[in-house]
Amino acid sequence: MLFLLPPSETKLDGGSGVSGLSLGDLSFPELTGVRQDVIARLTTLARDPEAARAALKLGPRQLQEIDRDLVVESSPTMPALARYTGVLFDPIDAASLTDSQWEWARRHIVIHSALFGPVRAGDAIPAYRLSHDSRLPGASLKSTWRDDVAAVLQATGEFVVDLRSEGYVALGPLGSRSTYVRVVSGDAGGRRALNHFNKKSKGLFVAALLADRPELSTLDDLLVWARMRGIVLEAGAETLLVSESVLAEPGAQRTGTGPSR
């Protein structure tokens, strides 16, 4: 089972690797040609700071992001799960993960980058700035990525739990062996989609998975694990994640539970 996350616009600087980005070492090598194309278009854009500011929707205090993009091919790299920061990734706290948690993450967590397409948690990537709605020279990111992303994820044969935002779903919609997760409130007024706690709830959900490291194959397996964890997942046309069940105090969450094989 794969858990497909959106990226974050905020990223850590730094990393290691004197030779910078190695596209050939990234997961899903079928995407190498598309990755090269998008990188070339991004670096071309970055050479025109005013055009880049508009295309990347940068404010006056964010212009250093253009410098990141200029040197994206030679910048230091770090594992993708450690590169991204922000509301979704903070609960995961990649810096504190154990070796066994990193092993599970490398096998089961995929992050959908607008620049690199899907990458696995351990893939080494540089800091960059590009979002799903950025406007690069040439074709749109949607038309660039859509078919290829859908094809490589389908080719894994894995059931995909889609935790992406709708903007990233448009860059690679999934087929029948997947479920889209929507975060809702479980208050007395019924189910209500959330914005503020959406990313945090997804981050806590992934953190719980990393704590337990269950081996899951089907949606039913996931529902059983969640029920044992006290996490409310409701499967239907979409899978609903009830925010209150993951926004509990960390001490209330159990570890080492759930189906394994």
TrEMBL record:
Q: Which domain of life is it from?
A: Bacteria
GO biological process per UniProt: response to hydroperoxide
What cellular-component terms does GO give this entry? cytosol
Database matches in InterPro entries? YaaA
User: Tell me, what's a Pfam family for it?
Assistant: H2O2_YaaD
User: What is this protein's name?
Assistant: Peroxide stress protein YaaA
Q: What is the originating organism of this protein? A: Frigoribacterium faeni
